[in-house]
């Protein structure tokens, strides 16, 4: 694209997608030859968007037509199709030019899908065109199959040749002066050789999943085509909001399915298909957390509930700037940490997804998986991200192992992403662990998981009775009226966690079934409590309590029995228990 062309189409350039504007500006600066376009590269592109139209074109055609106005010479290459051109005339000129130098070589060789052959002939063609002052753009698709993320020692000769050639082209001043640009296309930057990605001579441009504005434009276009059928309670604006995280191909698929079946898109169907599509797009690395409950179903933990209710209020008022970047939620096992987060999700009305294991034994796959997940999270915003057993799941910045530094790089990538204030209130992190002391400071410091909340076991019989009543509602269990739970708690001096009380209710329901009645009686319940022997790990539980107390960022949520303890004494107690459990040595 020449500077004259940009000036001529300045109004059009302004309404191009942001990534396309960035590419145009970088190109006109004449400071680079090699560009890597990554992300959502296989989607509907708003060709002729200024006319309100969307045409399904390959990104190669979009770049050639919209960005470069089909001027100069536009060349395409991938391992399957080999060398191709925008037009037959361009291809004829290429073959004719090379034939003058290599008369004995057949034309098929010049169009080879073998990069070692294709790049050699293309470079010769580039140099032969320098005197013509003709702009040349080479677009290489599926770049990860040509310069894959791999150790040089493991690369084939062909891969080494491709890496060296592209790296050399990126820094060749002759290419800059001769207006020769090379554009690599890949979904994940981490699939490409880091030697190329990290080169200061390479321009990286991310193509995001469409935002709400683009989704609205596309749905409006489909509506004008009379190919979008919505039920009465839905409109285009609401559908655009609900479908965050979906690309235009996904939206087109939903519209096409509805149109073919002559069945309006319902709210329930939309939510179901969004969950299904995103979980598939994320390769099973994200799992939607669905809940029927809100914070009213949480017993006790009044301070934590108050914090979450205030956060929900801020979200509904659009005050995302006052929210913490994330939460660290600790406490001993069985206190309902995960349930608290899902209940919060029910209050705020935004989706919450669980991050699953994205590590792979194949080199580069873990980074690619994680990059894909982060791109989806950006597009889904606002969204909550739950990481359970965070201390074991996330590891640390300096992990030993045989993964060639993969875990360290992923950890650094996550820490950087979590600390990006652009996503404050848009991507809310929930790190759940019973051992916050094992979680690296990098992730739980201010600016990442800023607010540290802790849940503890019920401290009094009144709290246990309230928890008992709440769990009856949650589990939808029928219990005889006036069962006298307070008397049973006092009689058997039951000091249990929420998980223990839930287990008691399930066993009591089983006993009732065995006794041929649906409603749990006092006898069923007493028989269960009398027989119940919770697994005991006193030192482990005490350690989990103490490290949760140490992590709390508010004194008010700490149980009274811990509030007056000197912090240095707490630290010493933690050390003594760790010695006892064999976690540390003298």
Topology of this protein?
Blueprint: H1 3-8, H2 10-14, H3 18-28, E1 34-39, H4 59-67, E2 73-78, E3 82-85, H5 88-101, H6 107-110, H7 115-128, E4 136-140, H8 157-171, H9 173-177, E5 180-186, H10 194-197, E6 202-207, H11 212-224, H12 236-242, H13 248-261, H14 267-281, E7 286-288, H15 302-316, E8 326-330, H16 337-348, E9 352-355, H17 365-380, E10 383-387, H18 390-394, H19 406-418, E11 427-432, H20 441-444, E12 451-454, H21 461-475, H22 485-492, H23 498-514, H24 522-531, H25 538-551, H26 560-563, H27 567-581
Parallel strand pairs: 1-5, 1-6, 2-4, 4-5, 8-11, 8-12, 9-10, 10-11
Antiparallel strand pairs: 2-3, 7-9
Helix pairs in contact: 11-12, 11-13, 15-16, 17-19, 21-22, 21-23, 23-24, 25-27
Structure description:
This protein has helices spanning 3-8, 10-14, 18-28, 59-67, 88-101, 107-110, 115-128, 157-171, 173-177, 194-197, 212-224, 236-242, 248-261, 267-281, 302-316, 337-348, 365-380, 390-394, 406-418, 441-444, 461-475, 485-492, 498-514, 522-531, 538-551, 560-563, 567-581; strands at residues 34-39, 73-78, 82-85, 136-140, 180-186, 202-207, 286-288, 326-330, 352-355, 383-387, 427-432, 451-454. Helix 17 (365-380) links the parallel strand 9 and strand 10. The strands form two sheets. Strands 3-2-4-5-1-6 form a six-stranded mixed beta sheet, sandwiched between helices. Strands 7-9-10-11-8-12 form a six-stranded mixed beta sheet, sandwiched between helices. By secondary structure, it is α/β, with parallel strands linked by helices. The chain contains 27 helices and twelve strands. The model has no long low-confidence stretch (mean pLDDT 84). The radius of gyration is 30 Å and the shape is elongated.
